[in-house]
Write a structure and sequence with these properties.
four-stranded antiparallel beta sheet, 346 residues, alpha/beta, 2 domains, single chain
Length: 346
């Protein structure tokens, strides 16, 4: 029995670092003298050639992160690096070059992707001309063929369906061979069939060109088309789902997936909401280090005096077992502070 990963190929590059790296990213907006913290110390790493989806509820910080990675906004604090470029340190001129040569964009609104008075082919050709490459006119046709839009290359956006427009938009975004492709809700205005076609187009671009892609979306079907799904909650990455292909003893391939909680550099993680609700985890929790895992239990007063048996996990909703040492308390039944415990031991 063996297990094999199926990563997308990457461009031959001299550097070996990740294409996207965010460390402790913070973005604070001030509205009517009120500060709104959209990103709260977010960490994210996307390796070269990865196809990753970023999902989250409205207001979770997805669009704010994409604006920063697009060099359309700057973080309040933290580090953001794309293809080796330190984004907060870029000058205005460098930001223009970065958006033209390093990253490609696909927006939800067609009006931000395509010029309405140009055909699909002319939109791609214009993007290549702006990028400075006029020596390979056939490249625009090749890109339209890659995204499955060659049959309507001479049509204008108004003559195309929503899904066709987005596939042409992907060709435009790839016109100058960017290192990273960023997409903001590319299937938000599409029906299920059109969404499937667009997501398959991202797969094809990632597989054939090795372009790193980050898709920000709320579309649950995106998970079938990416190698990794990252969930963002309250301005921080909370969980990741990794996918790979498993080959059994008879040579049959099976799609596999496993969900992980994200642990940042200072040891913070976000427990899934359903875990917190089922075990009534609020405000404070108790931790216990075992040989190969860390146990987490409610920290309310009713369970403060008890802890689970060593090596045994408590049943959901049940009070932990009571063979562990009881917590020292004062005359009012409150747990002693560390200072009081040290004084008692002197």
């Amino acid at each position: 029995m063996n297990t094999t990963a199926t990563p997308a190929p990457a461009h031959a590059r001299a550097d070996t670092g990740p294409d996207i790296e965010c460390r402790g990213l913070v973005r604070i907006f001030t509205v009517a003298d009120i500060e709104v913290q959209a990103l709260q110390g977010l960490d994210l790493v996307v390796e070269q050639g990865e196809l990753v989806a970023l999902i989250g509820a409205s207001g979770s910080g997805k669009s704010t992160l994409l604006s920063i990675l697009s060099a359309l906004d700057v973080p309040t604090a933290g580090q953001a690096t794309v293809a080796g470029r330190d984004l907060p340190a870029l000058s205005s001129r460098e930001r223009v070059t970065y958006r033209r040569e390093v990253v490609g964009f696909v927006w939800q609104q067609t009006g931000r992707n395509l010029l309405p008075y140009l055909s699909a082919l002319e939109n791609v050709q214009l993007a290549r001309a702006i990028g400075g490459d006029r020596t390979h006119p056939e490249r625009a046709t090749e890109l339209l063929d890659l995204v499955g839009a060659a049959d309507f290359a001479d049509r204008r956006p108004a003559e195309l369906s929503g899904g066709q427009q987005q596939r042409v938009a992907i060709a435009v975004a790839l016109a100058n061979n960017p290192r990273v492709l960023l997409a903001d809700e590319p299937t938000g205005d599409l029906d299920e069939h059109a969404s499937e076609e667009v997501l398959r187009t991202f797969e094809a671009a990632n597989r054939e060109l090795g372009t790193t892609a980050l898709i920000v979306t709320h579309d649950p079907t995106v998970s079938e088309h990416v190698q990794r799904t990252v969930q963002i909650r309250d301005g921080r990455t909370s969980t990741e789902v990794l996918r790979w292909t498993h080959t059994d003893d008879e040579g049959r391939e099976h799609a596999m997936a496993e969900e992980f909680a994200v642990l940042d550099r200072v040891g913070r993680l976000q427990l899934p909401t359903e875990y917190m609700d089922q075990l009534s985890l609020r405000e404070r929790v108790r931790l216990r280090l075992e040989e190969d895992h860390v146990g987490v239990w409610p920290g309310d007063r009713a369970t403060r005096q008890k802890a689970p048996e060593a090596g045994a996990a408590p049943e959901p909703g049940a009070a932990p077992a009571s063979d562990a040492p009881a917590t020292e308390t004062d005359a009012d039944g409150q747990p002693l502070t560390r200072r009081q415990l040290r004084e008692m031991g002197q």
